[in-house]
């Protein structure tokens, strides 16, 4: 089956709604599903993104989003404080960074050596809708919108076709890749809080054609070697299907299409042949297959990124960007509200952050930024590392209805930190400032929607571009202001 996705409720000239499914005989031919993944973006583009210009506009050819689900503690990573009560002060020592006057904690020594290549936004802040638990906050951070149905605990209903799209889906719809390559890849696990899985990680009302290609290798969250077992069967030629045979199938498809003039007329404006050729080219060329082959990297490179799930995902993200992927989302490889290397440190903060989550983040993120820079790719790749909120300034206090001990911090959306680098982002600065206990911004507060607006701006999309939801209602991509202060 070939799905022509489009703006809900928008009719074509011949009266066919773009929401309808056009069924094509012989649609089992290899390449059709990939054509849907690759795009048909022009068919559903609706209003075009209006160029706005200004600092940093369109500098990013691609985006790598490091999504730190769980909510990392800003006080214990990149915004430590001196001269504060013991319950507020981080259990970790401060160390200087490459940026004069800027300290981080001792669990980020490698990141400290590359702060001259990035910007720390220490004034991320928002007031939540109801209790601020993970799923509602994740949904807002990744879509720019609050959810319609939020339970008293802050939990949400499961993903729905009515959801607002993940920002990656919006980007690939308006800015498809320039080469035949997977446009949007998400790994190594879905976004998750308890039994709510994947909320904020889909294309929602845009349709499944803009969903990310998901790479979730088998193994649980404690399996640190799972990336060595990744499979991309969708992108591999089956042994019995040789490239010439695929090309013959493409010819057969052309014959069928020419025998269906009505369908040709209905789909002509969608450049369907172009997308089919891209899908076929992707399978035959093996571009994506090669990008996923981590064995081509040296042992030293694997060690540099960290031989664990997160580190190897960062390495694969770099390879995908090199191959032409537009948007990569690396989700922190642990259920948001869980134990061990989860950032949800209601208990056990000192051990978990020092020996589990901290070293993984430090190696993976620092290596990604430095490696991109060394390869000349950082100038055209936007890297964003952020979670749904920070942690409470005072340890052992409940702010979200959860229990916390003296070695734990609760959820805190009122002030936290994001790390951004590349593609027109200023180097070696701190933007915004938190108060003496990192409880609230005292300078240049940045709402999550402002950060999303800045990402759209960086890839050359007006954040105010109109999309149409499942009810055919016009909505902006995001209601936020571009943070021009971080753009060179």
List the helices and strands and how they pair.
Elements: H1 32-38, E1 62-67, E2 94-96, E3 103-105, H2 109-112, E4 118-124, H3 134-143, H4 167-174, E5 184-187, E6 192-193, E7 196-197, E8 213-214, H5 243-258, H6 261-267, H7 272-285, H8 287-291, H9 299-305, H10 309-323, E9 327-331, H11 349-374, E10 381-386, E11 390-391, E12 411-412, E13 416-421, E14 429-431, E15 433-434, E16 441-443, H12 448-458, E17 466-468, E18 474-476
Parallel strand pairs: 1-9, 1-10, 4-14, 5-8, 5-9
Antiparallel strand pairs: 2-3, 4-13, 6-7, 10-13, 11-12, 15-16, 17-18
User: What is the CATH domain class?
Assistant: Alpha Beta
Average residue pLDDT = 83
Span of the ends, CA to CA = 46 Å
Which stretches are low in confidence, meaning pLDDT under 50 for 5 or more residues running? 1-33, 37-48, 234-238, 262-272
State the CATH superfamily name: Alkaline Phosphatase, subunit A
**In one word, what is the shape?**
globular
Domain module tally: 1
Q: For the report, how would you describe the main beta sheet?
A: 8 strands, mixed
**What percent of the residues sit in helical stretches (DSSP H or I)?**
25-40%
Helix run count: 12
| CATH T-level topology | Alkaline Phosphatase, subunit A
> If strands are numbered along the chain, what order do they take across the biggest sheet?
8-5-9-1-10-13-4-14
Please state roughly what percent of the residues sit in beta strands, choosing from under 5%, 5-15%, 15-25%, 25-35%, 35-45% or over 45%.
Answer: 5-15%
The quaternary state of the protein chains shown equals single chain
Per DSSP E runs of 2 or more residues, the count of β-strands stands at 18
Radius of gyration from CA coordinates: 23 Å
Query: Helix and strand string, N-terminal first?
Result: HEEEHEHHEEEEHHHHHHEHEEEEEEEHEE
**CATH structural architecture:** 3-Layer(aba) Sandwich
SS content category = alpha/beta
